[in-house]
Amino acid sequence: MLYFLLLSLTYHSIIIDGANDFNSDEIFVQDRNNDSYWGKDNELDTLYLTWDRNNLYIGCVYSLNNNAILIFLDTGEGGIDNANLLDWYPRDVRFSGAKPDYLIALWNGNLSLGGVRKLSKPTIPLSYQGENKAISNGKYFLEVSIPFSSIGKPKILRITSLICGGDYSTSCDAMPDDKSIRGEGSVIINTFREINIDSDDDNEPDSSVSVNNAAKDVSYEVIFPSFNLVKLEPEVCRGNDVEITISLTEKSSVNVSLFNENGRFLKNLFYIQDVKDTTFYWDVKGIDEGVYIIKFTTSDNSSIIKKAFVRIK
Ligand SMILES: [Ca+2]
Ligand SMILES: [Ca+2]
Ligand SMILES: [Ca+2]
Ligand SMILES: [Ca+2]
Predict the structure, then answer these.
(1) 130-167: b or e for each residue (b if 16 or more CB lie within 10 Å)?
(2) pLDDT per residue over 157-166, tens digit each?
(3) Helix or strand run (H / E) with residue 48
(4) Which residue of 70, 111, 229, 267 has the smallest Cβ count within 10 Å?
């Protein structure tokens, strides 16, 4: 009897028919059914995971109303850290720590509007089996089978699943929970559910694993770039060129914009991509006499520095 129970753990081949045949110990994440910022019609409930020798199986119970389900899989090397840049299901979601390599997505409970893709440039559709069916109380059940041969036999899997709105929109619910989800504004996911599916390193997925026991949440500290130094030389200028020096704690793109002394926006001066330390020159001969404010902003708005500048004749 014990032998039979052990065999029933993983190496469980899910039948892709829209009926939920995952076992209770194949619950990968149990989310609260009342933590969505957009109400009960857009809720993630349960994420299931199991595998057999040849396929990874993922299941999801959720409710959804004119929004999207996105299940991101980090399988190892490479991947993306910004879902805004995708050519398929782009969303205002970035990732810190894990870098997802594959995405299962669908729109409004309709898998024929979604599918499974590799997150390269461009994204590449994968062959998979999937069924998505309405179940009771306005809920849906999704089950997907992805062959290991097409995702390169991962060792460590890190997964997050989200409900988002339309293209470039934000998220209202994540499983596992992530504190950057607020139902508005940009999201930076840094909590993922992780499982080692090949803990004996034999390059084959392990049998006899209780997914529910083996899975754990991992969180990665979000590191925001901030300014070490911003310097104008000179700050009071009679000539044509001002030397501007910027130093950041982390690489970031920087926007430099000009305001009058009352804080009214005048124009963007520079947009500098992916810098850590740089010096450049601003030709001020077209600027009238007066007092100005120059604002330096990192690309994610995490750090802002204002410098006064005076133009004299
Ligand atoms: Ca099934
Ligand atoms: Ca939820
Ligand atoms: Ca990755
Ligand atoms: Ca949640």
Answers:
(1) bbbeeeeeebbbbbbbbebeebeebeebbbbbbbbbee
(2) 999 999 999 9
(3) strand 43-51
(4) 267
What's the gap between Cα 184 and its chain centre? Answer: 15
d(CA 171, CA 180): 9
Q: Ligand 2: distance of its center to the CA of 173 in Å? A: 6
Residue 23 has a CB neighbour count (10 Å cut-off) of 17
Q: What is the DSSP string of 223-260?
A: ----EEEEEEESSEESSSEEEEEEEEEEEEEEEEEEEE
Kindly give the distance from the C-alpha atom of residue 96 to the centroid of ligand 1, in angstroms, as a whole number.
33
Dist CA 103 CA 95 (whole Å):
13
Q: How many CA atoms lie within 13 A of 68 on its CB side?
A: 24
Q: Hunting for tokens 């994204």 — which residue is that?
A: 123
Closest CA relative to residue 145, chosen from 115, 120, 124: 115
Write out pLDDT tens, residues 203-255.
999 998 999 999 999 988 767 788 999 999 999 998 889 999 999 988 888 99
Tally of CB atoms within 10 A around 270: 16
Q: Measured between alpha carbons, how far apart are the two ends of the chain, in Å? A: 93
Q: What is the per-residue pLDDT for 118?
A: 98
- Structural domains in the chain plus CATH codes: 2-219 (2.60.40), 227-311 (2.60.40.1930)
CA of 68 to the centre of ligand 1 (A): 22
Q: Hey, what are 120's tokens? A: 């390269």
Tell me the pLDDT tens digit for each residue of 136-187.
888 999 999 999 999 998 999 999 999 999 999 999 999 999 989 989 888 9
Q: Which ligand is nearest to the CA of 101?
A: 3
The rounded Å distance from CA 172 to ligand 4 centre is 8
Annotate 107-155 with DSSP letters as a single string.
ETTEEEEEEEEE-SSS-EEPP-EEEEEE-GGG-EEEEEEEEHHHHT--S
Strands 93-95, 187-189: pairing kind: parallel
